[in-house]
Amino acid sequence: MSTDDLDGVHPAWLPPEAFRAIAARQVRVAGTGPLVETVRAEVTRAGATIAEDAELVLGFAGEVGSLGDEGFALSRRDGVTTVLADAPAGLLYGFFHVVRLGEAAFTGDRPVERHVPAMRRRMLDHWDHVDVHPVMGQVERGYSGGSIFWRAGAARDLARVRAYARLLAAVGINAISVNNVNVHATEAKLLTERLGDVAAIADVLRPYGIRVHLSVNFAAPVILGGLPTADPLDEGVRAWWAEATRRVYEAIPDFGGYVVKADSEGQPGPFGYGRSHGDGANALADALAPFGGVVHWRAFVYNHRQDWRDRSTDRARAAYDHFAPLDGQFRDNAILQVKYGPIDFQTREPISPVIAAMPATAVAVELQVTQEYTGQQRHACYLGPMWSAILGFPLTEAADVAGLAKEVVAVSNVGDDPFWTGHPLAQANLYAFGRLAWDPALDPVSILDEWIDVTLGTEVDREALHAILDDSWRTYESYTAPLGVGFMVRPGHHYGPDVDGYEYTPWGTYHFADRDGVGVDRTRATGTGFTGQYPEPWSDVYESLERCPDELLLFFHHVPYGHVLRNGSTVIQHIYDTHFAGAERTVEMRRLWERLAGQVDAGLDTRVRERLDEQVRSAAEWRDQVNTYFYRKSGVPDAKGRRIY
Ligand code: GCV
Fold first, then answer.
1. pLDDT for 549-601, tens place per residue?
2. How far is the CA of 39 from the centre of ligand 1 (A)?
3. What's the 3-state SS for 489-543?
C-alpha cells in the first residue's frame, strides 16, 4: 500500500491504478517550462509513452482563449483526447482531470468542456509547529501524527512534501501556509534566520504550481528585530517589515505572503498599540505589495476572557463588530480571512454575517478540514455536504457565499501518518475541499464517488461507502450538540461530550440550559442583537421563532423544552430521538464497513475498523451524556421510554 517513492505511505488518490488509462496510451505534451516538465514527468511516471502521434494531447490553446492562468479545455474527437490551456498550470490541472476520468476520457467523442477555477487562490493552512508544543503537540488540532514539514525542530524529509504537493495539485490546491497561526518563538524565526527551511519547502512545491505562505507574529519587529514597538504606523516598524519581506522574496521569488492571527487568543496585534486592524493589515500589505504578495488577515478576533455571568457579551457578534466598520479601508492585497460561522468551526453554525458585510474588502472564507469539532478523524464525518451548503448559501439577494468570497482557505488535516489523515476515510475531506474550492457547484456525493474511484478503485462496494459517508456529517450532528447550540465538548482537547464543560468559562461559548429551557437568545427584541448583523431576509428569518430553521434554533433562541419545532417534535423529544438514532446509525456504519472486507488494503481496513469501533463507543457516550443531562435538567421523560440514566 505505498506510493512508489515512499515506503509505507498510502498513495491516497494517486495510486498507480489511477493512471491505468493513461499508461496504456501515447501522449504528447507541448511547450516548455517547469510546470510543463512536471506534466511530462507525470506522463512518464504513469507509464505512458511520449510520442508525436498521440491519443492524448496536452498543449496550449491559442484560439480557445479566456482560460486564464489555470483553466483548461478538454475535448475528444476522432480518437484523440485534447487538453488545451492558456498557461502551464492549466495543463497540469487538465492532466489530473484526465487521471480522474480514467477510461472515460478516452471513450467516444466529447464536445469542448471549459474548466476554470471559481477562486483564484485555493489554500490550505497548516497549523504545524516546528517545535513540539507542550500542550498542542506538533500540529495544533492535528489528528494525523506529526508535521510533514517540520521534524525535531528543522525542515524534514522533503520526499513526503513532494508527494503531498502532487496530491494537492491533483485536486487544484495552489497555496499552502506552512506553520500555525499561533506563532511561537521558534516559528517566528521562519521569517528570518530559518527562512532557508521555508525556501527548501517552496522549491519542492513550486513544480506543482503551489506557492508557500507563512504565518507571522505581528510583534516580529520586537521579537526578531529588537525594536521597542510593533506599532504598524511607526516608520521604523514599517521599514523593518519592508526589509524582512525583501529578504523573503530574495530567497523565494514566488512567495505567496503572510497569514496573521492578531489580537486573538493571546496573539499580539494592533490593539496593543491603539491601532485598528486596518492599520495592522495594511502595514504588512504595504511591505508585500512591491513583490505581488498578499496578507491573509484573520477576522477571528474576540474576547476570550469574558465573564460568563455577563449575558450581554456575545462572542458571535465579535468579528462583525470589529471588522464591518473597516470595510473599504484595507489595501487590495489584504485579504480578510473569515471563519464560515460566527463562533468556531462548529458542526452547525449559521454563516458569518461578515461575509456579506464587507463588499469593498477581499474576503476569504475559512473552513476546517481538520476535524477539531467533527470527530477528530476518529469519527467518519464526510464534510463535503457541509461545505457545499456553506458555499452555496444565498447570504444576500444577489449572491451566495462562493460568489461573495474571493477565496477559500481551509485548515489542513494532514500529518505524517501513513494514511496522511489518521482516519483513511478523512482523505475524502481533503479531496472534497480541493474540488469544491475549484468548483463550489460540484455535487459532494459525486465528489465522493470520484474519490472512491481513484483511491479505492472502481471495484469496491461503493454503495456501502456512500451509505457510510454521504450523511455522516448529519449523523455526527445528531448525536452531538443539538439544534445548533454548539460546543458541549471536553475543554482543551475538544473530543467527546462534556455538556457543561465550557458553560462557566471565559470562552464565550454557552448553551444556558436550565430546568425550563435551553439556547442562546441572539434576537434584537430580547437578546444580544446578533440577528441584526444579517442582511434581509436572514435577519428576520433568524429573529423569528417561527421561521428560524430547526437546525439553528438554539443558536438564535432560548426556548422551553416543550417548544414545538417546525418538524413537529418538541425540543426535548427531538434531543432524545436524534441522540438515540445517531448512535444507532454509527452501529450501522460499522456493520456496513464489513461489506468492504477483502476489497481494500489490509492496513487500511484495520485502521478504519478501529476508528469505527471508537466512533460507536464515543457516539454512545455522547447519547448518554446529552440525554441524561437534559432529562435531569428538565425532568421530562422520553416519550418512547428508552433508557436514560
Ligand atoms: C490555531 C480554535 C482552536 C485553536 C485555533 C483557533 C484559531 O480556537 O481551538 O486551536 O488556534 O481556533 O482558529 O486561531
1. 999 999 999 999 999 999 999 999 999 999 999 999 999 999 999 999 999 99
2. 37
3. ECCCCCCCECCCCCCCCCCCCCCCCCCCEECCCCCCCCCCCHHHHCCCCHHHHHH
